[in-house]
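Predict the assembly for these two chains.
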Amino acid sequence: MSVERLHYLGVLVACVLVTLPLEFLFGARVWRRPVRMLRAVAPVALVFLVWDVWATRRGTWWFDEHQTLGLVVPGGLPVEELAFFVVIPVCALLTLEAVRNVRRGTTPLQRWWAER
Amino acid sequence: MREYPVLAGLSVVVVLALELAWMRTGLLARRAYWSTMVIVYAFMVPVDGWLTRLNDPVVSYRPDRVSGWRPIWDILAEEYLYAFSLLTAVLLLWERQAS
């Protein structure tokens, strides 16, 4: 398997890794509130996935088979698309909570800095 | 029909209507929301720019179904509308659950 096939997945993994500090150092607690997170992410993902399946079937857009794993889900979408509709919104949630915590001065990072 | 920009624009209207008429979280009036959107859009440029780069795109578009306007790198302008709807909808549903 070529590295190229990991392109789409790789971008999503990078997004998760880059934003992980927000969860812990900035106390976002999004991954650690999975029910609230899924209740926010799932309904929106459902709507956008329906749109995505429809547009993909119509040929409005398509995904490069060389840059995806090749795993296709019912509907014809690459599995990476499913991951996209979880990862990207979670990044936004992490950002929102991190921004709030920074402004309130309640992040673990700020606490550590104050007590160092 | 320029399907993608039309639906993307429509999705923005739908999300705003859902907030104004139903959810009423007040999130869009908060500075934290707008700070979040600025940060997220800043990251969107390299990420989406890479996914939709024209020389070897991960995602490709049928030319007559999109605007064709790619002001920043190769990112279609309507992608920013799509992102607004996707992210704002999730942020609103998150906010709505705040105790």
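The CA atoms of residues 52 and 77 of chain A lie 8 Å apart. The interface with chain B takes residues 7-8, 11, 15, 36-37, 39-41, 43-44, 47-48, 51, 55, 58-64, 67-68, 85, 88-89, 91-93, 95-96, 99-100, 103 of chain A (CB under 8 Å).
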